[in-house]
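Before a colleague's protein record goes any further, I have to sign it off. Would you go through it and say whether the fold makes sense for this chain? Take the sequence as given and treat only the tokens as open to question. The record follows directly below this note.
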Amino acid sequence: MGKVTIGTRNSKKPAPKWYRKLEEALLIIIIPSAVIIIQGWGFSDEAFVNKLIIIFNVALVALVKAIGVLLANGENYQKNQDI
């Protein structure tokens, strides 16, 4: 396993395995947590709450996925060779 690097040149390489597992866990935990927190604030306008939930969730997913695109540690996907 190589050294973890961060950069735009890593966009075609997979993120390290530990980050892929962390990413999955974060998305499973962060999205429901954000929804619960926003709903718990007690806004009276339900349409505003729904918009806020969508904006927060899209932003959080984009942030976690963007970090994964920038990370690499030298691992590469194995090429599929059809016979």
